[in-house]
Amino acid sequence: AQTVTQSQPEMSVQEAETVTLSCTYDTSESDYYLFWYKQPPSRQMILVIRQEAYKQQNATENRFSVNFQKAAKSFSLKISDSQLGDAAMYFCAYTDSGTYKYIFGTGTRLKVLA
Amino acid sequence: DGGITQSPKYLFRKEGQNVTLSCEQNLNHDAMYWYRQDPGQGLRLIYYSQIVNDFQKGDIAEGYSVSREKKESFPLTVTSAQKNPTAFYLCASSTTRLGTAEAFFGQGTRLTVV
Question: In chain B, whose CA is at the least distance from the CA of A7?
Answer without folding.
Answer: B40
